[in-house]
Amino acid sequence: MNVTLIFLAAIGAIIVWWLAGQRLTSKPWLETGSVQLPHHDSADQSPVPAVKIGLFVFLGVVGAVFSLGISAYFMRMASADWWATPIPRLLWVNTAALALSSVSLEWAKSEAGHGHMQRLRPALAAALALAVFFLAGQIQAWRELAAAGYVLADNPANSFFYMLTGLHGLHILGGLAVLAHTTVKAFASEVATDRLSLSVELSAIYSHFMLAVWLLLFSLFAGWANDFVDLCRTLLN
What we know:
By secondary structure, the chain is mainly alpha-helical. It is 76% helix and 0% strand. The chain is elongated and about 60 Å long. Mean pLDDT is 82; it is low at 22-44.
């Protein structure tokens, strides 16, 4: 249990560090001096939009849900009826697709900030297509495991694999709906408005977070997280 808490604390530290980089910890009321007229270059110090704060709150809840699932995974793993589920090779391809989707959204975020609509549109389309490919690949990985006899109720490891990957897939699907709407708006717009740029930025943040969650889950299923736990046990002993 102590090892699990250490592992989750490491995850929490990474999340806090990432959120700090998004300027959520800034205190604009402490940065103002005497009353002055606003300058044209004050946009860089504008407050964080409410929708962005709402996204971070939602991601915090999602992170807590996955942390509980991972904690339960570690505790259940010590049972005698636990047999590790083999990792389909397709998951490597899926991981690469999700990573490239996240990179494409970061590219789209940069192009939206510079107002380059001709580059923004293909970046969003690529991110959307790669995310769809990831979901399709996950379904195919499920089918391969089921065909090999690793069904949901066979053993606890299988149940956790289907549950956690399914939960992650549902969150990816939700992000896809927003990304598809943003992509349609980008193709229908002539210029990159502030609202469109914000939508692209939020999609990028969400994609990066879900990529981080998937990399954590993938390391868990591949056994790399177990090596980390063994290292923690060695250090504690």
